[in-house]
Amino acid sequence: MCNKYANTLEQILMREYFQVMREHDRLGNAEPLPAIWPKYEAPVVRLPPEGDRELVRMHWGFLTPQVSKKTGKPIKPAAWNNARDDKLRTAPLWKDSFRNRRCLIPASAFCETKGRSPAIDVWFGVGQESNPSPFAFAGLWREGQAGVEDEEGTWLTHTMVTTVANDLVKPVHPLRMPVILAPEDYGTWLAGDDEAAFALLKPYPPDRMFVFKGD
C-alpha cells in the first residue's frame, strides 16, 4: 500500500508533460511537494466534459464516514488512498469512478515502508537515478463524499490504483504497488473504454525504475 508520494515537478513542466494548456491550469501557484500524505492536496490531471485536459487540486483519498466504536458518534472520515485493480469494476466505492472519472496523478517518486522498529522509507523513481523522469499514476476521482459532513464532504478527492508488485518493489512491499502508466497510454486511461483502460493495469517494468533513497 502506498501512503506517501512526491511531486516536485515545476508547474510549467507539468503542463508540458501532461499536455495541459495554460488556460486549463487551475492550480494557481503550485509549489514542489516532496511528501504527499493521505488527505493532502496535490495536482491531478482530469478530462472534464468539455474535453480538454485540466490541472486541478484534489485531496488524496476517497472519504467515507466513520463512527467511534466506543461512543457511536461520528469521527474523522477514513481516507481510501489506494484502489485495488481487481476491485475497480465491482466495489461500490470505485466502480462508478472507474467508468466515468479516471485521472492522472503526476508524480516524481513514491514511497513504500519496509520493516518495523525502525521502519525504513524506500523511495522509487522512474527512468534512471542520474536522469529521473516525471510520471503518472493511474487514478480515480470524485466530487462530494456521501455521508461526510462539513468542508470535507465537498472535497474533490483522488485515489491511486494499485496492482501486483514488480520485482523491484517486492523486496519492500511483496504484494502491491501503484499502477504507473506509460505516457503513450495517458489518453486511453483518461478517455478510453472500460476494457481498454482496464488492460493498462499491470506492474511497471522494473528495469525502467530505480530505488533512490532510503531513510
Automatic annotation (TrEMBL):
<dbReference type="GO" id="GO:0106300">
    <property type="term" value="P:protein-DNA covalent cross-linking repair"/>
</dbReference>
<keyword id="KW-0378">Hydrolase</keyword>
<keyword id="KW-0238">DNA-binding</keyword>
<keyword id="KW-0614">Plasmid</keyword>
<dbReference type="InterPro" id="IPR036590">
    <property type="entry name" value="SRAP-like"/>
</dbReference>
<keyword id="KW-0645">Protease</keyword>
<comment type="similarity">
    <text>Belongs to the SOS response-associated peptidase family.</text>
</comment>
<dbReference type="GO" id="GO:0016829">
    <property type="term" value="F:lyase activity"/>
</dbReference>
<dbReference type="InterPro" id="IPR003738">
    <property type="entry name" value="SRAP"/>
</dbReference>
<protein>
    <recommendedName>
        <fullName>Abasic site processing protein</fullName>
        <ecNumber>3.4.-.-</ecNumber>
    </recommendedName>
</protein>
<keyword id="KW-0456">Lyase</keyword>
<keyword id="KW-0227">DNA damage</keyword>
<dbReference type="GO" id="GO:0006508">
    <property type="term" value="P:proteolysis"/>
</dbReference>
<dbReference type="Pfam" id="PF02586">
    <property type="entry name" value="SRAP"/>
</dbReference>
<dbReference type="GO" id="GO:0008233">
    <property type="term" value="F:peptidase activity"/>
</dbReference>
<keyword id="KW-0190">Covalent protein-DNA linkage</keyword>
<dbReference type="GO" id="GO:0003697">
    <property type="term" value="F:single-stranded DNA binding"/>
</dbReference>
